[in-house]
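Changelog-adjacent note: as of this version, every example in the card shows the full chain rather than a window. The one below runs 151 residues end to end.
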Amino acid sequence: MKLAEALQERADLNRNIEQLKDRLIHNALVQEGEQPVENPEKLKQELDVSISRLSYLIAHINETNCKTFVEGKSLTELIAQKDALSVKIYTYKDIVYAGSQSSYRARNSEIKIKPAISVADWQSEIDKMSKELRYLDNKLQESNWTTELME
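Full-length structure tokens:
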């Protein structure tokens, strides 16, 4: 199995676990004398099997990510770099947005508000980081489809 397939299955399992949890919650209580719409014990068994499979996949995905290297860095390092870069980009975007806000004055005697940052410079930096993020994401996607899951 390719790493990408394991990642897709992990995402499917996470969605399935959430749905099973919701179904169990909706069938956990029933009016006296009535039967639940679905059998909670059967749902519990399905949930346990899904969680067990999820645990297996997480362990093997993590092992594969730690032991697979691309351009001298493990996939784990590349994922961390990508996640940190995403946080930085979104934070910078919020700051640029705040610095771009216009303040209108009704009279010249009112306090003038102006940006304390160079919005253009910050935006230029965001653009460079966004390009790097796309490159990292492409590298990771390529690796995911060419790397066998370590089992």
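Structural remarks: The two ends are 9 Å apart (CA to CA).
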